[in-house]
## 1
Amino acid sequence: MGAACAYYCTAAGLRVEVVERGAIGGGTSGAGEGNILVSDKAPGPELELALLSSRLWRELGAELGAEALEYEAKGGVVVAGSAETAEGLRRFTAGQRASGVHATDIGPDELFALEPRLTREAVGGAHYPQDAQVQPVLATAHLLRHARRRGARVHCGTRVTGFVRDRHDAVIGVRTDSPTAPVRHARWVINAAGTWAGELAGLAGAPVPVLPRRGFVLVTEPLPRVVRHKVYTAEYVANVASGDAGLETSVVVEGTRGGTVLIGASRERVGFDREISLPVLRRLAAQAIGLFPFLSGVSLLRSYLGFRPYCPDHLPVIGPDPRAPGLLHACGHEGAGIGLASATGHLLAQRLTGAEPDLDLTPFRPQRFAEATA
Amino acid sequence: MPISPAEPGPAAVHDIVVLGAGPAGLATAVAAAARGARVALVDAGPRPGGQYWRHRAGDDGAAHHDWDRFRRLRDGLDAHRDLLDHRSGHTVWHVERTGAGFTVHTLHAGRPYEIRGRTVVVATGAYDRQVPFPGWTTPGVFTAGAVQALLKGQGVVAGRRIAVAGTGPFLLPVAAGLAEAGAEVVGVFEAGRPLAFGRHPFTVVRNAAKLAEGAGYLRTLARHRIPYRTRTTVVAAHGTDSVTGVTVARLDAGWRTLPGSARTLDCDTVAVGYGFTPQTELAVQLGCAMERDGDGSLVARVDSRQRSSVDGVYAAGEACGVGGARLSLIEGELAGLHAAWATTGARPDRRRLARLLRRRAAQRSFAAALHRAYPVPGGWRTWLEEDTVVCRCEEVDVAAVRRAVTELGATDPRTVKLCARPGMGLCQGRVCGYATAGLVAEADGREVTADDLRGMAGRPIAQPLPLGVLAAGADGAGNEA
Ligand SMILES: Cc1cc2nc3c(=O)[nH]c(=O)nc-3n(C[C@H](O)[C@H](O)[C@H](O)COP(=O)(O)OP(=O)(O)OC[C@H]3O[C@@H](n4cnc5c(N)ncnc54)[C@H](O)[C@@H]3O)c2cc1C
Ligand SMILES: Cc1cc2nc3c(=O)[nH]c(=O)nc-3n(C[C@H](O)[C@H](O)[C@H](O)COP(=O)(O)OP(=O)(O)OC[C@H]3O[C@@H](n4cnc5c(N)ncnc54)[C@H](O)[C@@H]3O)c2cc1C
């Protein structure tokens, strides 16, 4: 998220410094997948953001090189296992189409033509040609590389420990743990601290409720390309939108360029617990096999986990914070922060340079949580 | 004591599950069972003995050192059969922490098993450390340990004309074993200068027995007229389908090649080893505190009772520091006594503990002296070409690793792994982890740290396992159990 902000702000002529306590992509971005999905979103402000993002990622792919980002518009296939689910999915796609999503309802024959190894128990589904992906760490690295070329400075291994305020209490910079540059002044500060953004916002006295939602991903041994799209069950959409603390797994299966198959991802609210959970891995494996029976004999090589930054209302926090003038937020994108990074960076750059915004940021305003409790 | 296949229902809980049946694990299991603890001893191999006593079925031990000790340990396994459940052919893919202790998940003959214990002892040993050089992925280039394992485990001599290269005292037994088995060893090329060992006379005297062993190997080499060259190594292997020869060059103290010293030698096989890398993923999985040892390896930190930083987890042998079979035996015995004490209350004899600790200290200072005598300085990086492969699983070359740092801004091996894929393949960074960490640190203008090594050493799934087997676990979708 920070990288996209740096990219678009430098493109708009702003001078940018990026302060990162670890390594680039070392937060959740290096611990998730890089799906850029429109398929999993119901009509509403997040879908608007996703559609804009999808277009911007296509442009970024052209500008920075699709190879470099491993940008691939392979499309998504959503699978319904029962006639009832298929019917629900058809209602869902109809709503999406009205909002500008390309979604085609398909029957079993088309489904098996798109994904020959899919379980024959599938009764129908939908095809979403707009769904794409990037490799998140490569995307982050290349966005920053271009930002650096336009003058941005990137300080890795430097933690923000507080904010600098002026007489009117406006934010005019950050304090860091760097002995050489303990204070960095800036006209604006963007909080893109992901799952730790709530903590950072707290330091500015402008709290935003960003919490961790853990996810595991399984990676198989390399195979010849056998899974061609992002394939997931229709139940996935319900899970993404759920606020349930309990474990939810609804698997997304896809092949990667390296030949490995990625199986993701679970969702559960367990704080920052890094301990591997075999029940979760087992469920992911079982669901993946349910979609693609041949996976049963394929070896699992590794698994990893990350903590999605989520807000209680499942919308990101994007825009200036009236409680701390000079501070803007770009956080809380939950399981879509790679996909939504492009539009978020672009809209904030428009905001800072006074350009006409492509989208209204009101639904994402940081003060909405305080309003709700007021 | 039966162990249960992975299916719901209550199962036996051992006091101690020992992971690895090399010298350390064997010594642990026998010492603990002798104190009345219920022990499971788990190893992937078909027979106990680990790296040191790797042998064929029916082996009489003639070619092995300390075989008597091995026989006694094996007899100990038999003698305590009522308490000691020996599981060979069980590959551990994960160790799970549970309320009551630990569940060790294994794969045996294609089926999942769960072995439960109140404590675990990580005794997973070490494997050859490799540094890349041009041609090192050519068929015919082996690790010294693989050549040794072929010989000891299967009675197979790896080639006809063999060059042995790298650093460390273990090159000598490998070369001697090959010569005795009838191979022509064209030379032993020791990149270091072990004479430097003389600078630590105190530890050397205390371990005269060990040195005599080395002298014995040197005599074998002399008898077979095998040249032994120090400050010299194989810096390139030639051949496309298989090795046809090597380039050997002299090195300075930092391991840069001396100009004009390169010469080529004909051979069909190369055995290379630059010390050892401890097999630590199970310790890392369990969250044990790790540190960088004197030889630059990542090891589990242990106290005077072989306890790691995690409650109930012990470590013994090379998983907590490379130091040879004798140190592994001592650490194993200590771990066994203490884990038995902690789980059964059987208090070990104080004098026995004191004696073990004294011997551990002596062996450790000997190991530390060895580490100082056989360092791996960073000059190996100057032997590389830009297109030399670093990660053979994913075919990542030196240039790609360096580019991830210089162009993409990565500052640590983990980020480089995510950008350029070294360590993402089948071996999960076991082979290329050390080299990747070294290249990244160099490109980032600093020394390698424990965190760098850790970034390449974490393997939540220690060994590949079929998804169907994973899914079939306790709460899976009901596939074949
Ligand atoms: C299993 C899983 C699968 C996912 N799959 C997808 C997917 O397919 N598509 C998708 O779009 N999204 C996906 N996501 C979500 C996505 O990864 C996140 O939404 C996204 O990475 C968030 O990016 P970010 O830049 O906001 O956060 P991060 O990448 O976490 O970046 C925040 C950075 O801020 C730094 N930081 C924090 N505090 C400080 C401080 N005080 N000082 C300095 N630096 C600080 C952190 O070190 C971190 O690097 C997935 C997530 C998970 C866990
Ligand atoms: C070529 C060579 C020559 C040597 N020569 C000498 C010598 O002359 N003198 C000397 O003192 N030492 C020598 N050594 C070193 C000696 O072999 C080691 O010090 C000793 O074997 C270490 O004992 P250990 O019990 O710690 O580990 P190991 O002997 O390596 O045993 C570890 C065991 O753990 C098992 N294991 C690991 N991971 C798993 C898993 N995930 N699942 C199941 N099982 C697992 C392995 O199968 C192995 O059996 C030599 C080593 C080599 C390679």
## 2
Amino acid sequence: MKLIISAQNPSLEAQVDRRFGRCMWLVLFDTETNQWEAFQNPGASQSGGAGVAAAQFIVDQKAKVVVSGDFGPNASRAFQAAKIEMRRFTDSTTTVQEAVDHFIQDKLLK
Amino acid sequence: MQIAVASGKGGTGKTTIATSLALSLASLAKVRYFDCDVEAPNGHLFLKPEFSESTPAVIRIPQIQTEKCTACGRCVEVCEFHALAQVGKNILVFPQLCHGCGSCTWNCPENVIVEVPNPIGTLERGMALENIEFFRGLLTISEPMPTPIIRQLKKRVHPQPNTINIYDAPPGASCSVVETLRGVDFALLVTEPTPFGLHDLKQMLGILSDMNIPSGVVINRDGIGDDSLEETLREFNIPVLLRVPFDRALAENLASGRTLVDVYPEYRNALRDLYQQITEIVGGKTK
Amino acid sequence: MSTQNSRAKQLIILSGKGGTGKTSISAAFAHLNADQEEPRPMVFVDADVDAANLSLVLQPGNLDPKEFWGGSLAEIDPEKCINCGACSAVCRYDAIFPDPKNDQVQWIDPIACDGCAACVYACPEGAISMVRQQEGNWFQSNTPYGTLFHAELFPGRENSGKLVTLIKQQARLYAEDIQSQCVVIDGPPGIGCPVISACAGTDLGLIVTEPSLMGLHDLKRVLGTLRHFHVPSVICINKADIYPEGTRAIREYAAAEGIELIGEIPYDEKVPRAMIEGKPVTVLFPDSFAAKAIQEVWHKTTSLLQLQED
Ligand code: SF4
Ligand code: SF4
């Protein structure tokens, strides 16, 4: 299963980024293969609609879960429509790897 | 004649001057007052209009006729504002992001987008004190975009000869101020002699020179500050058209909703003089 | 303390109406925090990006501008334009005219252009392109009272909301780096786009109002905005003695709405005097009425934010 985590840098050791739409990086992690890949968030550079731009990217990646600090109303609507699960971490010092682990241990907020 | 009353910094007395200017000129010509500070409009508290007309301010947003949509995604691609997203076969519309530009409508190869009105505020019109025709725009709480409301408010009537249109601008120096200033003959800048007032006034002067609009200044709360304002005005060659000294009793009266010319009737003549100076600066060139 | 909830609290200071004294109060907060025996590390943000004044009082030393690139505007290549008028027919912003320098081609007024790109697609000659605009600069500056994130939107530009989001985000990341407990945001006037951006994700709203019909009218609108975004709010009245009846009306309104009134600051000519000196009023006139009242408001605010005293 593919999950995407908003992050401050393109690595598994990077800190997660609490804001979804304007985070710098989106790290895609595949729980089946343990492979990961980082993408620049296309929303970060948009003058408006950052959340929707980022959400569209994630929808197009066919991710099943998205992990961030909080989701704006527009992004939430897009994810609901695409049936992508939104999960939230509360501690923004978490790393991407930890967020993945927490997801697997079902420790993230819904 | 179309005059915008602007300031840069908020709370310098823009509305105080704009409303009293309207009252002072009402006996000379037909006066229309447009409250373009649609996020925090205050003109009505002083001019006390009775609104007889209220219409929604709308943005035309796309509605996709889903039966005929082939989900090609062209609309999503052309929307510069990410107001559209595609999820599978569905196109989602995000009304608060939509500028109502029509790009998606024109670019849909199947021609299946229709536009529906999405209200973001209201436009009101009525008669106020001394027969001033009063127009007000009001942005609905939680809506982000004031500019379309200002644009529509100004379009409610065409400027006419022998009519004085006064536009009370929002504070700041961003796009909503520019929208208020578009097409006016003159900008009356109300400022106060403090570093904040001066800093924000300079932003305004930048906009006005880009837009090629002549301006003059009212110094409000004269005496509370220092000389740097006057020095800057000399440097930019901007005339001071009126000074209103700081006075606690006046501040109290204004707080209660009285107008400057009600508290101190002598300002009526001063404001008519100010208008005279504006007409001389503008010359015969009103738009 | 556990690292859970280590995220800095965000305080947003708003007013609706401009000129109620928000910035003077924010500046005093910065000083009051720095002036303790063990100051809490705190980060300040001036979110009024088109009339940015906090730096005039906090007086950072060197400015290190970083570019802010916003949206794009359309430009016509006069070499390619065949003057067919297809672009102006689709433009809903009345932005396209015959070029004042050459009436054989069309021209786009950058002041009027909304950046929607409708004309780009309409042009049969491919003569129009979108050009990204630098719309301002932002700064991370050291001040005597802590780090300030601020910005200057170029006059007349759009996208102030995006610039606010950008500097807030930078401030938040920095706050995490220095383990700051609190980010104080001096908000813009009004209730539109930059205000919405400034409110997003904040923990407490402090509304600085003034006792006038205008103050009360705009207070209601800004409170509505904060409520819409689920930000708990409190009120303080500035220049409270200018119009006692207005102050009473605000007290009653606050009580009726169940909003806590955390302070009343008297009118004090020391406030504009301090502003002219470019210093927080609490620095220059610590014993003035206004400074004392602001101190009170600051203590209440920090306790509402549940910042740890240590
Ligand atoms: S009208 Fe313009 S802004 Fe609105 S959805 Fe269509 S393309 Fe986007
Ligand atoms: S980009 Fe849109 S607003 Fe700008 S000129 Fe073209 S059609 Fe008009």
